[in-house]
Write a structure and sequence with these properties.
Bound molecules: NADP nicotinamide-adenine-dinucleotide phosphate
Number of strands: 20
CATH superfamily of the largest domain: Medium-chain alcohol dehydrogenases, catalytic domain
CATH class of the largest domain: Alpha Beta
Number of domains: 2
Structural class: alpha/beta
Strand content: 25-35%
Radius of gyration: 22 Å
Distance between the termini: 21 Å
Length: 379
């Protein structure tokens, strides 16, 4: 195979002049270090976490694009508040794309890199929105022969996070889970995992259509935060399951507080569960997403045995170590077309992903709307 001298990589920059600028930058084809491989990227999804790097705190309602093909440029204004939050990245040209899959077309001299030559692999790296990505061989997951790069594009971020939620539950001594924005791509995976593993899961959604999606998946406990009965339904579901751990993808507003309130009310139904400081069992909410960017509001009416904290997949994987992490990765590889399958609304070229009309569609992060970038597609 003849390899090109250069390739295109998407980059995102917040300029000193308070503007977000995203474009395709031509880079020299990389020479892999002994432990590295070069992947010809065929498919890479747009997840909320990628959008964090792409757009940060820019005012995307006023985004616009200019030029076309390889010269497409997306810009958006950044407010003074946004500039403050993004201070550390001003002037840096950041590559984007947390995960993706493709064929290994060049490899360093080490045996582990050479072993991947010609294989279709998925990889976790921050540089996948590009025609090629140079990554450590260790960060690659070879796909089974029956799986394509598109099947494996979303192998890491959502599958490993959903699996790690259940692992966190076990490690921290909880027995059931609450999850918000629960009809998300990740939420649907979590439902399949919990049903297969016998873990009770309380799903919080905000629309009736989402209730139906999860019912069709076989979910037992689904509560709608838009319903007048939300707090009662949530308390009933938490009481029935005994859930004392929640993962909240919204992050902002009062949802985390409502969950803790419901956990406390559910505990109050069990005689003897109380002390003067509230219920004894520790109740924890992890804010693992920021779908609601408003401040987090905690009303604190739930005693003293509770916690609210951040949760991030790479930190959790580092905590459990390589062997435990590999077990999770192996499960993902085996169940790629079942538990961990993702469905995509549209396939985009790198340039299309910078078109402001298309950006508006994927920026909405709507249920069932997941986009895939195919960097080998004609620009
Ligand atoms: N911390 C980590 O390590 C980690 C790792 C992976 C993923 N994540 C997080 O996991 C979450 C889900 O990712 P995904 O790829 O599965 O998302 P997705 O498929 O794009 O779905 C997003 C879901 O969130 C809902 N939603 C959006 N804004 C909302 C709001 N303000 N309040 C309530 N629901 C809202 C949408 O419902 P509507 O249709 O009603 O808008 C949709 O169901 C994201 O927040 C992502 O950042 C975190």
């Amino acid at each position: 195979m003849t390899l090109p001298a250069t390739y295109l990589q998407m980059q995102s920059t917040v300029t000193e002049g308070a503007q977000l600028r995203m474009e395709l930058v031509e880079k020299p084809f990389p020479t892999p270090e002994p432990h590295e491989v070069v992947i010809q990227v065929e498919a890479t999804p747009i997840n909320p976490s990628d959008q964090g790097v792409m757009f940060g705190w820019s005012n995307m309602a006023n985004a616009s694009s200019s030029g076309d093909g390889t010269k497409t440029v997306l810009t958006a204004p950044v407010t003074p508040q946004g500039m403050g939050v993004m201070k550390a990245r001003i002037g840096q040209n950041l590559p984007v794309g947390n995960e993706g899959a493709g064929v290994v077309v060049a490899a360093g001299d080490s045996p582990e890199a050479q072993a991947l030559m010609g294989k279709t692999v998925a990889a976790l790296s921050g540089t996948m929105y590009a025609q090629y990505a140079c990554v450590p061989a260790m960060s690659c997951l070879p796909l089974l022969p029956e799986h394509s790069a598109k099947d494996g594009a979303s192998c890491f971020v959502n599958p490993l996070t959903a699996l790690s939620m259940v692992e966190t539950m076990k490690l921290e001594g909880h027995t059931a889970l609450v999850h918000t924005a629960a009809a998300s791509n990740l939420g649907q995976m979590l439902n399949k995992i919990c049903q297969a593993d016998g873990v009770e899961l309380v799903n919080i959604v905000r629309r009736e259509e989402q209730v139906k999606i999860l019912k069709d998946l076989g979910a037992k406990y689904i509560v709608n935060s838009s319903s007048d009965n939300f707090m009662k339904d949530l308390t009933d579901a938490i009481h029935a399951t005994g859930a004392t751990l929640a993962f909240d993808a919204t992050g902002g507003g009062e949802l985390a507080s409502h969950i803790l309130t419901a956990m406390e009310a559910a505990a109050a139904r069990t005689p003897g569960a109380y002390s003067i400081y509230g219920s004894i069992k520790h109740k924890q909410v992890y804010l693992y997403g920021a779908l609601d960017v408003s401040p987090t509001v905690l009303t604190r009416g739930y005693g003293m045995a509770w916690g609210v904290g951040g949760w991030l997949l790479p930190n959790f994987l580092a905590k459990i170590g390589m062997e435990a992490g590999n077990k999770l990765r192996m499960r993902v590889a085996k169940e790629l077309k079942t538990t961990f399958s993702s469905h995509y609304t549209d396939e985009l070229s790198l340039a299309q992903a910078l078109d402001s009309d298309i950006v508006a569609r994927y920026f909405a992060k709507m249920t069932g709307e997941k986009f895939l970038i195919c960097p080998q597609k004609d620009i």
